[in-house]
Amino acid sequence: MIKLGYCVAYDWQLLRYSIPAVYEHCDVICLSIDKNRQNWAGQYFSWDEEGFKKMLCEIDLQKKIKIYEDGFYNPELLPMQNEVIQRNKIANFLGKGGWHVQLDADEYFLNFAGFVSYLKEFTPDRKVNVCCPMINLYKEIPEGILWIKPSLFKEIEYFPIATLHPDYQYGRRNGHFNILTDFSILHQSWAREENEIWEKLNSWGHSKDFDVPKYFALWKNANAENYASYKNFHHLRGPAWPALELKHNIKIENIAGFSNEDFPLPIKKQDLRKINSIWLSRARKVLKILSN
Length: 292
Fold this sequence. Notes:
Blueprint: E1 2-8, H1 15-18, E2 28-34, H2 49-59, E3 65-70, H3 79-94, E4 99-104, E5 107-109, H4 112-121, E6 128-141, E7 144-148, E8 157-163, E9 177-180, E10 185-187, H5 194-203, H6 212-221, E11 244-248, H7 269-275, H8 278-291
Parallel strand pairs: 1-2, 1-4, 2-3, 6-9, 6-10
Antiparallel strand pairs: 4-8, 5-10, 6-7, 6-8, 7-11
C-alpha cells in the first residue's frame, strides 16, 4: 500500500493543488490537524471549517481521505519536537505496513505515478528513506514563477519522503540510510503573498541571524527584468541558492500540468549510483574518521 500523510495547518488551501498530483496513485490519505488549531509553536491559526469540507468534497471523489485530529502542541517542547510527535502519530494512525509517504500542503509532486512505480519495484534489505529533490519556488510574478535553480548536484536539496519503517526523529529525517532519486517535488516555500513572506521571515528561529528587512526587500524586488542578477542569495548560506530561473506562463493553480522536464536539475544516473551505494557510503565515513 501507498499511505500518504499530511501535516495540515493555516495553508490548508494549498491541498487543492498538492492532493490532485498524488491522489490517483495512493491508497489512503491522512490529513492531520491540531484539534485546537495551534501550530507547533503554540500559535493559533485561522481555519475555515466550511471551506475545508467543501474542498474535500471536490477532490476526494474516491473517499480516500481520512481526517485525524489530535493535540500536537506541547508547550514544554520545542516546535521541531512537536513536529516529530505529529509525524509519528500520523504513521501510527495509518498503521504498520506499506510505504509511508509524508508531504506538506505546499509540496507538489511532478511525477508521483513514476515515484510509486519505483517504490513498488524497490525491495530494500535494510531500513531506508527514499528521498526526493525539492525545487524551491521563490516568487510568483505576472510572467510566471521564479524558481531557485541549482547548478551542481551537491547543491540540490533532498528530503526523505517515503519509508517502510516510519520513525521520525528530526522533521522527516532519522538514522535510516537515505536513497536519493530524481523524482522532483515543487516546494511553494517562498512563492507566497507579501504578508506571508514577512511573517515567515520574522517568525523563524533564524530571524536574528540575518537582516530581515533587507532580505524581504530583495525578495520583493525580484522580477522578470532583474532575476538573472540574483546570485548566491540564500539568506544564511549564500551559495546554497546560486541562481534564479524564470519559468514562463505558469501559475500555482495549473502546476499539475508540468513535469520534471519543465524544471531541469543537474542529476545524472552515475551521481545517484554513487551516493546510493552503501559500500561507498561506508568508505566515505571511514575516510572522514581517519582525516580527523
